[in-house]
């Protein structure tokens, strides 16, 4: 640190006027530096807000995926904020080179202490790059099923069907199997219908075909499948597999299940429950 010779001479000569003048000059200069640093910080924040807003609007006009948009805007905001803070500190006369070195060493120590957060950040980057899911998708990951509401740098927010908000670390999601139910626009409804051994299978299959064909939400392509799949202990099981739009999956499954039960009751087709035949033998003692 350089020593101001004027200050030393003023003190040696006990020149009060010189000391006061020196302090006034230095105080005024330091005050101006503080004001300049504050101006840089405030104006920088305004510019950052403008840049991030412009970037967000541009990505929305380009119909960029919402997940990528949120992630990129967050990273740009943090990066620009670091630059603004360093510029404000430099205005105060502090050597930013040494400061960066100190921050680097401190960052290394903090990084070792926050390995979990770094793994979440790395997982967030992978999610943005490979996009296994997007905002609005219904997924199952890390043992949790829900609709993706927000993908952040460290976490992903899910909304469960019963309207609970669950925040899951990104690393846990990437370390688990991800099932994305919304990835494709079509889904197959898999149903198993059991009828009695005494029922007419041709009549049962015709009834099922009528019910499936009557639902306008069932897609013509790929064609649905109705077939006998198993001769079980108490029933003959048939598979019913219509294809529907992903958004109609649950509604079609629930409505079709109810329609099958009502139609079977009307047509006298039995839906057996597990049962066993018990044979009693009388044993006579001789």
Q: If you had to describe this structure to a student in words, what would you say it looks like?
A:
The chain is an alpha+beta fold and 286 residues long. The chain folds into 3 domains: 7-113, Helix Hairpins (Orthogonal Bundle), CATH 1.10.287.1260; 131-180, SH3 type barrels (Roll), CATH 2.30.30.60; 186-267, Alpha-Beta Plaits (2-Layer Sandwich). Helices cover 53% and strands 17% of the residues. The strands form 3 sheets. Strands 4-3-2-1-5 form a 5-stranded antiparallel beta sheet. A 3-stranded antiparallel beta sheet has the order 7-9-8, with helices on one face. Strands 6-10 form a two-stranded antiparallel sheet. A hairpin with a 2-residue loop joins strand 1 and strand 2 (144-151). The radius of gyration is 36 Å and the shape is elongated. It starts with a helix and ends in a 19-residue tail after the last helix.
Keywords:
Alpha-Beta Plaits; 8 helices; five-stranded antiparallel sheet; Helix Hairpins; 3 domains; elongated; SH3 type barrels; alpha+beta
Short description:
The chain is an alpha+beta fold.
| Distance N to C terminus | 119 Å
- Radius of gyration, in Å, reads 36 Å
Name given to the CATH architecture of the largest domain: Orthogonal Bundle
CATH class of the largest domain: Mainly Alpha
β-strand number: 10
CATH fold descriptor of the largest domain: Helix Hairpins
Quaternary state, please? Answer: single chain
- The helix/strand class is alpha+beta
Q: Looking at the structure, what is the overall shape?
A: elongated
Helix content: 40-55%
């Amino acid at each position: 640190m350089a020593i101001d010779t004027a200050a030393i001479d003023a003190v040696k000569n006990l020149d009060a006027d010189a000391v006061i003048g020196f302090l006034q000059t230095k105080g005024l200069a330091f005050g101006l530096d503080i004001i300049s640093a504050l101006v840089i910080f405030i104006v920088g924040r305004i510019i950052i807000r403008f840049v991030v807003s412009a970037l967000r609007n541009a990505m929305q006009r380009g119909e960029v995926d919402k997940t990528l948009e949120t992630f990129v805007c967050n990273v740009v905001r943090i990066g620009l904020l670091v630059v603004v803070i360093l510029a404000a500190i430099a205005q105060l006369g502090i050597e930013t080179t040494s400061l960066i070195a100190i921050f680097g060493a401190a960052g290394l120590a903090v990084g070792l202490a926050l390995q979990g957060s770094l793994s979440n950040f790395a997982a967030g980057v992978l999610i943005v790059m490979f996009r296994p899911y997007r905002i609005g998708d219904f997924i199952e990951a890390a043992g949790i099923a829900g609709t993706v509401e927000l993908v952040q740098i460290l976490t992903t927010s899910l909304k469960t069907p019963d309207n609970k908000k669950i925040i899951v670390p990104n690393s846990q999601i990437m370390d688990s199997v991800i099932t994305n139910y919304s990835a494709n626009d079509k889904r197959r409804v898999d149903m198993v219908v059991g009828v009695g051994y005494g029922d007419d299978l041709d009549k049962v299959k015709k009834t099922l075909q009528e019910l499936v064909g009557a639902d306008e939400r069932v897609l013509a392509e790929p064609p649905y499948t109705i077939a006998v799949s198993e001769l079980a202990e108490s029933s003959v099981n048939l598979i019913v597999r219509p294809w529907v739009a992903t958004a109609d999956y649950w509604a079609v499954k629930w409505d079709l299940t109810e329609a099958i039960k009502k139609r079977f009751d009307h047509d006298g087709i039995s839906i057996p429950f597990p049962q066993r035949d018990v044979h009693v033998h009388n044993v006579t003692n001789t």
